């Protein structure tokens, strides 16, 4: 199981992230505090707001999705 901290700055970042997540055939969750959202839900991820440190948890591995995670990774 892969876990990564990310920040999405605007609606375009959310769109790119969700499209990449949607192409994966495994579960991906994104959380902030006690809120847990399906990362394949555009409105769900958008509802978390921008510039927050979010935690992404993946139930599998996909090279293209991991590249997107690296793009938005928090150090």
TrEMBL record:
Domain annotation HPr: ranges: 15-63
InterPro entries per the UniProt record, alphabetical: HPr-like, HPr-like_sf
Record Pfam families: PTS-HPr (PF00381)
Protein name stated in the entry: HPr family phosphocarrier protein
